[in-house]
Design brief:
143 residues; alpha/beta; Rossmann fold; binds adenosine-5'-diphosphate; binds magnesium ion
Length: 143
């Protein structure tokens, strides 16, 4: 397990980091994202989708839990589990079949369903540090 730390100072930089990981993603890539509201999880995800070759708009599926995009080079499953009360709810939408399938997945608020995140998932944490500026983000990637 190696931790890599990236520091960004603009939304674009975070988008581009996501894009880079999206370009590198292969079937079965899972990214478990942690970070407070408004820290940049969805922005990173938008970059990731771009890196997969998806040009449609990506919005946070807070109310639908999952959104599937099939217009990229591999399927993309975007989860936002903020409203999940119990990880068992994820069974109902077939979480396991998607994340262990033919596409790449990103899970926003992954810490809420920690017990069902596959161990091979890449863990990404995004944090603010207001002392370093309003647009500063520390992005820790653990592979
Ligand atoms: P989340 O999905 O974590 O709730 P969003 O991606 O929806 O967060 O929103 C992040 C917000 O923070 C956006 O309004 C974006 O413009 C802003 N922002 C400012 N600086 C950065 C940065 N360095 N990286 C990512 N987002 C940033
Ligand atoms: Mg979000």
């Amino acid at each position: 397990m190696a931790a890599e730390i990236f520091e960004t100072n603009s939304p674009d930089e975070t988008f581009n980091l996501g894009k880079k990981l999206g370009q590198e993603a292969i079937p079965g890539t899972i990214i478990a994202m942690t970070g407070d509201l408004g820290v940049g999880k969805t922005l990173f995800t938008q970059g990731f989708a771009k890196g997969l070759g998806i040009d449609e708009p990506i919005t946070s599926p807070t109310f639908t839990i999952m959104q599937i995009y099939e217009s990229g080079r591999i399927p993309f499953y975007h989860f936002d589990v903020y409203r999940i009360a119990d990880p068992e709810e994820m069974d109902e939408i077939g979480f396991e079949n998607f994340v262990c399938g033919d596409g790449a997945s990103i899970i926003e608020w992954a810490e809420l369903i920690e017990e069902i995140i596959p161990p091979e998932a890449i863990k990404i944490t995004i944090e603010k540090d207001l002392e370093k500026g309003f647009d500063y983000r520390k992005i820790t990637v653990v592979k």
